[in-house]
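fyi for ur records
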Amino acid sequence: MLPYGGQVSPKSFLLDDTLHGYLLAHSAPVDEVAADLIAETAALGDISGMQIAPEQGALMALLVAATGARDIVEVGTFTGFSALCLARALPADGRLLCLDVSEEWTSIARRAWDRAGVADKIDLRIAPALDSLRALPRTERFDMAFIDADKPNYAAYYAELLPRVRTNGLILVDNVLWSGAVVDPAREDKNTVAIREFNDLVAADERVESTILTVADGLTLIRKR
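which gave:
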């Protein structure tokens, strides 16, 4: 268990604190900017649970570097930790398009991006993400996409993103295990049902190949064929 500004780092629901601390100690280190962002987000209270775990950020950054991604879109930015990880991994001329609806939460993100020196790589658009996506040309532009927003719209975001991701490009999707609720028959709330339906949709989609990783709250990796 590693403290950041007196707070505990977000972690996978599948790991206890001791094992999570070991994992972080053997992963890419979290620097001062990222640690401060984690702490500032934690201070928001329960809503801070929307922030991805450091190990997920490290994995996503590694995927950017390994695939040579240069053009990325993120649906759901919150306080900007995932965008910070993605932008840092981009080459100097890489671009990250961030879509969110909250000026309040993304104002925290902007401060962190400025401190990290990556603000010039990021285009933040404040508007409903579906509107922003539908306004983009329907061409294979993006090398990678990350979905981490309202769960009932996951399928709609996926439908808009897939035609705009190049062949062999990746779509990463967060929270696909939903703290284990996806296999709990007693859970029939709209978020759980939406995630189950989304997972079934992707698994049956012959246009892609995919796998669910037990990272943080479940991360689906989708490759466009």
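The first helix runs from residue 17 to 25. thats all i got for now
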